UniProtKB/TrEMBL annotation:
Domain of life: Eukaryota
Translocase listed as a keyword: no
CDD domains: mtIF2_IVc
Coarse class of the protein's main subcellular location: mitochondrion
Family, as annotated: Belongs to the TRAFAC class translation factor GTPase superfamily. Classic translation factor GTPase family. IF-2 subfamily.
Compartments where found: Mitochondrion
Cell cycle found in the keyword field: no
Protein name: Translation initiation factor IF- 2 domain-containing protein
Length: 228
């Protein structure tokens, strides 16, 4: 079987997987196509079949893979040395399989690799604002949240959300943490501190919740379930 993968960068971060297939016998091709046709996640990553057939990998298959920036999958067929050499020269991968399950599993991996990363928040800690202080910085008055860490830790230079009445009023950097009269890097649970953020126009109020977190990018996995 021959499968060609390509990127479609015209629609946000979605990717396009273009697929062509050639197997050892018609039954193999049909069996693989039956599985491929169960794919229903085109909104996340399109899957198009551009070629299927029986026989060994040919120069034309390699040229198609090059055109679509693809990967060639083979199923129970040989790759002539000259074709393998041509593919290597063009930077085209040829992936041989003799078990349909393994072939489809690899396709799922390839599809997943083309999905955009998802931004998630690794929550470090939480604090309650007790009161606001204003400190003088040259001609400006800088707001400081007098707060108490209630969960986990607070960490300088981490991101935080300031939540008031279930609404996020600030989402940005923690620029400073002070405990008593000292600048500190972290604040532990049950410790009171003064917290400043990058936005000096913010106004803190008693009862505000501050959630400290580190952002992280997480790889997605396709939700395609071929049934095995």
């Amino acid at each position: 079987a021959v499968s060609l993968l390509s990127s479609n960068e015209n629609f946000l971060d979605n990717k396009k997987k273009t697929h062509g297939q050639k197997g050892d016998v018609h039954g193999s091709v049909e069996a693989i196509m039956d599985v491929v046709n169960t794919y229903d996640s085109h909104d996340a990553c399109r899957l198009d079949v551009i070629h299927s057939g029986v026989g060994n990998v040919t120069e034309n298959d390699v040229e198609l893979a090059e055109t679509f920036d693809g990967i060639i999958y083979t199923f129970n067929v040989k790759v002539p040395p000259e074709i393998k050499k041509l593919a290597d020269e063009k930077g085209i991968q040829i992936k041989p399989f003799n078990v349909i399950y393994h072939l489809i599993a690899d396709m799922k991996t390839e599809i997943s690799s083309r999905l955009p990363l998802v931004e998630e928040e690794d929550v470090l800690g939480e604090a309650n604002v007790l009161q606001e202080f204003l400190i003088n910085d040259k001609k400006n008055k800088i707001p400081v949240a007098g707060c108490k860490c209630t969960k986990g830790i607070l960490k300088k230079n981490s991101m935080c959300k300031v939540i008031r009445s279930d609404r996020v009023i600030y989402n940005g950097l923690i620029s400073s943490l002070r405990h008593e009269k000292s600048d500190v890097e972290t604040i532990k649970k049950d410790v009171e501190c003064g917290l400043m953020v990058a936005d000096t126009e913010i106004s803190f109020e008693p009862g505000d919740i501050i959630i400290c977190y580190d952002p992280k990018s997480v790889a997605q996995e396709t939700d395609w379930n071929p049934g095995f």
